[in-house]
Amino acid sequence: MRSTHTQSLVLFSGDEALAQGAFEAGLEFAAGYPGTPSTEIIEHLAQFPEVNVQWSVNEKVAFEVAYAAAIGGKRSMYVSKHVGLNVAMDPLMTSSYVGVNAGFVIVVCDDPGMHSSQNEQDTRLFARAANVPLLEPSSPAEAKEFVKEAFAISERFDIPVIVRLTTRICHSKENVELAERHVQPTKPFTINMAKYVMVPRNALARHQDLMGRMAMIKIFSERSKLNIAQSGKKAIAFITSGVSYLYIKENYPDSPILKLGMPYPFPEKKVRDFCKKYKNVYVIEELEPYLEEQMRMLRMRFKTKHPSFSVGELRPEHIPVIVSGKPKPKRIVPARPPMLCLGCPHRLVFNLLKDLDVVVAGDIGCYTLGSLPPFSSLHTCLCMGAGVTFFEGLSHVFKDKKVVGVIGDSTFVHSGITGLINAAYNKAKGVVIILDNAITAMTGGQPHPAVGTTIRSEPTKKLILEDLCRVAGADHVDVIDPTDLKGLEQLLRQRIDEDALSVVIVRKPCILLVQKMKKG
Amino acid sequence: MAKAKITNIVFYGIGGQGIVTMAEVCGWAAMLAGFHVKKTEVHGMAQRGGSVESYIRFGKKVFSPLPQTATADYLICLHPEEHPRLLGELKKGGVDLFPYLEVAQKVVGDKKVFVNSFLLGVLSSYLGLEQSYWMQAMEKIFKRSLDENKAFFQQGYQAGGSL
Lengths: 520, 163
Known about the structure:
The structure holds two protein chains of two kinds.
Chain A: E1 9-13, H1 14-24, E2 29-32, H2 39-45, E3 52-55, H3 59-71, E4 76-81, H4 82-87, H5 89-98, E5 104-110, H6 123-130, E6 134-135, H7 140-157, E7 161-166, H8 167-170, E8 173-177, H9 193-196, H10 200-223, E9 227-230, E10 236-240, H11 244-251, E11 257-260, H12 268-277, E12 280-284, H13 290-297, E13 303-304, H14 318-324, H15 345-355, E14 358-361, H16 386-397, E15 402-408, H17 409-425, E16 430-436, H18 465-472, E17 476-480, H19 485-497, E18 501-507, H20 511-519
Chain B: E1 7-14, H1 19-32, E2 36-42, E3 51-59, E4 72-77, E5 90-96, H2 99-108, H3 115-127, H4 131-141, H5 146-159
Helix pairs in contact in B: 1-4, 2-3, 3-5
């Protein structure tokens, strides 16, 4: 039974497989911002010297830089987690009007069940909103093939294409066969204002053009093998997409299934034909009722999950429960909660904040764990950058409470800078703490501009946070090592009481980073 | 259609114990032996000391990366406090290899990092994959102390079935 291709056979995660597929498709440029479960895609691409890969400052920047590379003539890719796409919505929404030159693929990794996220939004709805086709693989091996298809669709129909993965696919591994890379000839960039300059008159024409392109892509979606009807014997049939397909196969291997690998544009005719063939059709999908809504518009008859299944990740054992029409069973497997590492410099700060009678506006990173016992000293967390903006908003309305903003170094560069400029401009007073551990720690340790190295560990221009904060308008900028406990406490107490806008940069490298350096 | 035999293994413990790497070695061994392998994890913020679970499933063709509840053929737990947590995943007639943790700890002594290789050796004695595949898998995954890892793996293999 031994495979004959052991040399090219690897055990790859969905992230690695997708990166490999893009590489084989001739990808030449990729940009992203780290975020679970998408991080390993960009990291995997960094090993290929043929590909120009970058960690960008944030997702909006990543999207625009990568998209421009595609307009410039090279196959290019943007990668982020679901909430990262929110930051890049501005360019996304108009990119469908403009279209592409060389292929442009938008990879978005959703996190049903919120293994490490602040919400569980469903990117399929964003594809519909932006008029961008969306492909949805079910497994790592499919991710590798689908991304190639995505590049082909992008170039054939002059449109960016989203490939949506979910955590269960990103972080699952399976057998994957490596293949050769096919470099595509560069597509010459020609000046074309009507296509590339989105002023109202041009944009209106491009919007009209988009409608035509989407109509063509809909026909493609009807014919494509990405949307495939499998026949079967049983009286019960399924329509599904993504990893749910595998859960159905696990439970009902002999049932007919319409597997929608390209759920947008929705292949109406294929769905209609499938529904005509079978009496008892179930629509099964994770998170939002996207397929369900499309089918309701077609007035199809079908059964679907109890609404309780719209929250959290689906599991294989859920499928028979969904078929029975019952609500989601409670799975009680208590897990040990994560905590700040022993030796983590953030611990010192949160210990101290606990003793200062302040409201702490937090942000996204390891330090969000400061909200858990024994610290319990981080009181808000919404999205990237809100440590600074919540600090400002709260400080404007609080009369007898003090607010401290807390944000990490990478998060500050991502979207804290604009908040700080805003706070200075609008005369906010108080303290913003930058927890500078010299890395993007939460996602496993990626560099960023204030680290001074690129994704490939090459030295580059280093952003000096203290200079930046001064220029942004902070009255005081202090840099302190948190192991100087007395000094830190004194400084914070003093700055909190002053009528000034202060930034305190608490600087000590992540303990995991230090351990990694020691190991070499 | 008879359901083709799938082997389900659960590795679990807490962040930092090498659970994921251990499952990786097992996955590679099964893949090199010619099986279709699926591996999946629950490790939300595992690096921060939380619970970690890694699942390996292999057979002729595997669909879901997550196994159904209570279908594990083997449980390998690296942490006594975590042990009761996933006992419910073991199927009737499945084997809980937890008792070998104590044996492993005694054998490796101060060289605690090799507990995992010892336990993989124990597991290998049950799975019936050829030893050469395990060796190749370890060569793929372990960058450091390969010989010692192999040696403790062999000791585990010998100890397998003794409890």
